[in-house]
Design goal:
The protein is mainly α and 193 residues long. Helix content is 60%, strand content 10%. Strands 1-2-3 form a three-stranded antiparallel sheet. Strand 2 and strand 3 form a beta hairpin. It starts with a strand and ends in a 5-residue tail after the last helix. The N terminus is likely disordered.
Length: 193
Amino acid sequence: VWRNWYTNRGNEKTSIWRVNLMFFIEPSRIEIIQVFMEEAKQKHVGLRAGYKPEYKFAIGLVEVSVAFESFLHIISNKQYVSQRIHDFSTEGELTPSINKIKSAMKQYILNLKKELDVEQLQDMTPNSIRPPLIISDIEDIKSILSVVYRVRSNLVHGSKALSSSRNKILIENSFHLLYVLMEQICKDKNIIS
């Protein structure tokens, strides 16, 4: 259920969206989510030709991560991404959306888990002291999203090579998993159709 609320900010009247009496979403944030989800969709469904697969999935992961981070800012104002991921994973209103797509996410999760069972996911960002990550429970959405976000961070801030077979697996599965999750939530919240 979407309602359009208005608030005065100085002399300017700004539209603010409220979803199910929990989320306040400014139209500019909706626009960011919509644009980056549409771009990521092109890679998810294979419509974007001309890229090597590893480039397509890396670009798609960055795009869907922008939409995800924008959504995280809607549901949590905490300083650190890890705290916002915790809030996202424990937000009861999102549980029905997550439950709808558990089977669609399962293979991506299992692929990531299998890779991380061989070698834990190190934090490759400069000067990081964060411990390696694994997926010990395939139902634990917080640990799964932490892994996906770490893959994204290693790609953007670290030294993740696109050509290694391990990185291809991590990037491709992280991209598809996060895309499927965000697509369902955004559809359920009428952010995208």
